[in-house]
Design brief:
single chain; 938 residues; alpha+beta; Dna Ligase, domain 1; D-amino Acid Aminotransferase, Chain A, domain 1; 7 domains; 7-stranded antiparallel β-sheet; 33 strands; 20% strand; globular
Length: 938
């Protein structure tokens, strides 16, 4: 069936601010769906309260409503604009819940709006645990023994009937919120109460716990002709008992028998057809008994999910893009395969490579948190790696995580305590993968590890092979490693720095030079969805070690943009937003735009966003070889946060041009000593400070600058390791811990300006002119990290003198640092005196907020300035803000009820929302002002 021509205008509901359990995978899906609908000439409106995403940018939607995600907001849009249909499947649980609420209130009927991509009845069937269980029984799909409970008494009765261990699953929640395992009777009452309170309908499923069973996911698409295809099979490395968002996952499934897969495939199709007659995407999760291949269904989600983004990047099949077209009437065989451009979208991808996803956690931000993994998702991001084998891919994934690992072990960071290792194997946390390797290195038998972890023997044997290879490598020196063995090491994912560590007394560069002399170089393979059966047209590549290189460097002028890696607290989606605009600006100005990134959730890793995408770790060895192949004009590091900035020194050392502000000038801003010397020279006030390399030096410095002091490491993002201390004893503890966590770092000791106001400026400099992008006033005082503060744009209570000083200092610093591009400066204001706290010559979390508030494409402008194709005078900048915009931080403390919610110099928020108010008489705003007065008077 061709496109439904009655649909001329579609509303897409976004997912709102980033929280644990609902991250930027929905930004990717929503953006892709919007662009897909616009291709069809459909007017796209978007509602989403998240200013940090590309989804809320005018390059994505025709009409963007940065409004609170409520039914009242939706109704207001429907009053203002003629909307024919709403697509709620791209905004996660938030969008689905809003769709149901709007339906219950009769909003869709009142404004004659169709729900497309799913139907409300399907959402109800999948979110209501009892309805889902009964439906599975009716269609003959196996489920775990379970009973629904709407009260404490019903829950107790269910537990008594089913027996332990049990799992509690609340209805209508995201990321496993409120759920958990109950191993014994004494734990049940508290777990049941928590589950009932978490569910908005006060309903839980009390279910038999199939702990240790294997877990799988299938991604499906269906069209209006009832054609269903399986896009991707995904196997969880971790067995049942750990939320899929916290599980290492592998695609395609590695240990699934063909008979079991075909059975699972048939059941998934039956399930999708049973929940409703709609065209769109679906995610189905299964559990398989490893002893007899018995299959039970866990859940079905009639929307795009975290796994949909992963499956899209894994296969190259753009699930959200095709799902959006199916929702407006197309059938699969009427759509083009986006990879081959010659076949239809009615096919199931076949992979000749392996994908591994590894989650990224931030437990360091939640001191005292329960770090054991279970039903409630706790990870804040993830990385994906592509290799020819599982072991190559998992080593690359470890290199991508931004936790200082050079691969899966062999980097000097192993654990040697057998007690800690065995406990960590039984009680899974962020480091279990590394502990498995450590256990094998210490001689713990594979079967003992399997019994404790219940991880499939095949995966464990793959890791054991790494241990054997390391043992063999230690027999050699760098100059006598046989070429074949060296080649094998690289095929197994060993980085040069791992090899240098295992050999001892050789550097990473020496290993690199040796293998280059042997002709052992990376080649790049295309992600083609069909195992090379058809020619692929999409420039989407991963690296491996083989003979044939499929990535041919063009003779065009090229620019490489380094991405920001996995999302984590302190470095989120705002940097991916910046990278996307960097790519767009490069393409608009005639450059071939090349992206390097490893985050499957993001828009920057969409294969049609850059001219060429390398889905690779943002890890020096990988970046270096791509640069050597492509020979770009330069590399943009300014847009990818700390991940990209950390590459700047290496790029400088190897004579590779950094586009924008130079490495030396960036280092002046990062190096507290050099920066303070610069401020002194410019006659700009700053808090007294000193630098120390140990606790004794720190105490001397603190007594010189005066307590209270702010203690922090240099070269970090998101306030990592920062603390405020008031005496020598607390200072000594803080410094010892900081140097233990970040060895080799220096400690900065600043006098802390107590009860000072904090303000910020963002600006763009082209080397001559400086444009102040925005000035913001914080509600919280100095001492609360800027990422955790409410920021008001423009300032509402600062004097003209303070504003003038902020502008003057911003311009002075921009010119003195020779900034080409973006600059963020944080100030403390006390007794009308403006002090500079720090300056960051890079993209910040506030620029996307300001760009959305003023409706000015600031990152795009900054990127063109950085590329040297424009000066600021070439742009006419018109701001459109009436009243004030407020950046509201959003936290995920509900995931860690055991930790303190107190805010400080270390950032803890996971996302942000934007709110517009007309004037200072707004009740919401007046409350903020009251809070500000309270903070400053404490």
């Amino acid at each position: 069936m061709p496109k439904d021509t009655s649909i001329r205008s579609v509303l897409i509901i976004g997912s709102g601010p980033i929280i644990i359990g609902q991250a930027c995978e929905f930004d990717y899906s929503g953006s892709q769906a919007a662009l897909s609908l616009k291709e069809e000439g459909i007017e796209v409106s978007i509602i989403n309260s998240n200013p940090a995403t590309i989804m809320t940018d005018k390059v994505i939607g025709d009409h963007v409503y940065l409004w609170p995600l409520t039914v009242d907001s939706i109704e207001q849009i429907l009053k203002e604009r003629k909307i024919d249909a709403v697509l709620p499947t791209m905004g996660g649980q938030t969008a689905l819940n809003l769709c149901i609420e709007a339906s219950e209130r009769g909003i869709w009927d009142k404004y004659n709006v169709r729900v497309i991509g799913v139907d409300v009845a399907a959402i109800e069937k999948t979110e209501n645990r009892e309805a889902f269980r009964q439906l599975m029984v009716d269609i003959g799909v196996g489920v775990a023994t379970s009973k629904i409970a709407n009260s404490f008494l019903e829950g107790k009765e269910a537990a008594q009937e089913i027996g332990y261990p049990l799992v509690i699953r609340p209805s209508y929640t995201l990321g496993g919120y409120g759920g958990g395992f109950v191993h014994k009777k004494e734990e049940f009452d508290q777990a049941l109460q928590r589950g009932l309170e978490a569910s908005p309908t006060h309903e839980v499923l009390v279910e038999q716990a199939v702990l240790g069973w294997k877990e799988y996911e299938l991604e499906l698409l269906r069209d209006s002709n009832d054609n269903v295809i399986i896009i991707c099979s995904i196997e969880n490395f971790d067995p049942m008992g750990i939320h899929t968002g916290d599980s290492i996952t592998v695609a395609p499934a590695m240990t699934l028998s063909d008979r079991c897969y075909q059975d699972m495939r048939n059941q998934a199709i039956k399930m999708m057809r049973a929940i409703g007659n709609f065209a769109g995407g679906c995610n189905v999760q299964f559990s398989v008994n490893p002893d007899n291949d018995e299959i039970i269904a866990i859940e079905i989600n009639p929307r795009v999910s975290r796994s949909s983004a992963l499956a899209s990047k894994a296969t190259g099949y753009p699930i959200a893009k095709i799902a959006a077209k199916l929702a407006i009437g197309y059938n699969l065989d009427e759509l083009e395969n986006q990879i081959t451009k010659t076949t239809s979208a009615y096919f199931e991808p076949t992979l000749d490579y392996v994908i591994v996803k590894v989650p990224r956690w931030n437990f360091d931000k939640f001191k005292g948190a329960n770090t054991e993994l279970g039903l409630q998702m706790k990870s804040v991001g993830e990385v994906m790696a592509i290799g020819r084998t599982f072991i190559e891919a998992i080593q690359k994934a470890c290199q991508s995580l931004e936790i200082g690992r050079a691969g899966l072990g062999a980097d000097g960071k192993h654990n040697r305590s057998i007690e800690e290792i065995m406990y960590g194997l039984e009680h899974a946390s962020w480091n279990r993968l590394f502990l498995i390797k450590d256990a094998m290195s210490m001689g713990v038998p594979l079967e003992s590890i399997r019994k404790v972890t219940r991880i499939d023997k095949w995966f464990l044997s793959q890791i054991q092979e790494l241990v054997q290879l390391e043992t063999e490598l230690k027999r050699y020196s760098l100059n006598n490693i046989p070429k074949d063995f060296f080649f094998t090491l690289k095929q197994k994912g060993f980085s040069d720095i791992q090899i240098s560590y295992l050999l001892g007394n050789v550097t990473e560069d020496e290993v690199y030079d040796r293998r280059q002399s042997l002709g052992i170089k990376r080649v790049y393979k295309m992600v083609d969805t069909c195992a090379a059966e058809f020619a692929a047209q999409t420039p989407y590549y991963y690296s491996t070690f083989e003979e044939e290189n499929e990535s041919v460097s063009s003779d065009k002028k090229k620019v490489i943009v380094l991405g920001s890696g996995p999302n984590r607290i302190g470095q989120g989606i705002e940097f991916d937003y910046s990278c996307v605009h960097g790519l767009l600006a490069a393409k608009e100005t005639g450059f071939e735009a090349i992206m390097i990134n490893c985050n499957p959730e993001t828009v920057s890793t969409d294969f049609n966003m850059a001219d060429k995408l390398y889905f690779e770790p943002v890890f020096w060895e990988h970046v270096r070889e791509i640069i050597e192949l492509e020979k770009p004009e330069g590399v943009i590091v300014q847009l990818g946060g700390q991940t990209a900035l950390k590459m700047a020194e290496k790029l400088q050392e190897h004579g590779i041009k950094i586009i924008g502000t130079s490495y030396n000038d960036m280092d002046v801003a990062e190096d507290r000593g050099r920066f303070s010397d610069l401020l002194k020279e410019l006659d700009i006030p700053y808090p007294k400070y000193g630098v120390a390399e140990n606790a004794e030096e720190a105490i001397i410095v603190a007594n010189q600058v005066g307590y209270p002091v702010l203690v922090r490491p240099s070269y970090v993002l998101g306030g990592q390791g920062m603390s405020i201390v008031i005496n020598d004893e607390d200072l000594e503890k803080a410094v010892v811990k900081l140097l233990g966590d970040l060895p080799g770092n220096r400690v900065l000791i600043d006098h802390f300006l107590d009860r000072a106001e904090e303000t910020e400026s963002d600006s763009i400099c082209d080397g001559e002119d400086v444009h102040i992008v925005g000035l913001m006033e914080h509600i919280e005082p100095a001492g609360i990290h800027s990422g955790d503060s409410f920021a008001v744009l423009p300032p509402f209570s600062l004097s003209e003198k303070v504003i003038s000083d902020m502008e003057t200092y911003s311009k002075k610093i921009a010119r003195a640092l020779n900034v080409i591009g973006l600059l963020n400066i944080q100030f403390a204001v006390k007794n009308e005196k403006v002090y500079v706290i720090e300056a960051n010559p890079r993209a910040s979390r506030t620029v996307p907020f300001i760009a959305k508030a003023y409706d000015v494409p600031y990152i795009n402008i900054a990127a063109k300035v950085m590329l040297g194709v424009n000066k600021l005078k070439d742009f006419t900048i018109v701001r459109k803000l009436e009243g004030f915009a407020i950046k509201e931080p959003v936290f995920s403390f509900y995931k860690f009820p055991e930790v303190t919610k107190e805010l400080g110099p270390e950032m803890k928020s996971t996302g942000e929302a934007i709110r517009f108010i007309k004037d200072t008489e707004d009740p919401y705003f007046r409350k903020l002002v009251k809070d500000k007065s309270m903070y400053l008077s404490k």
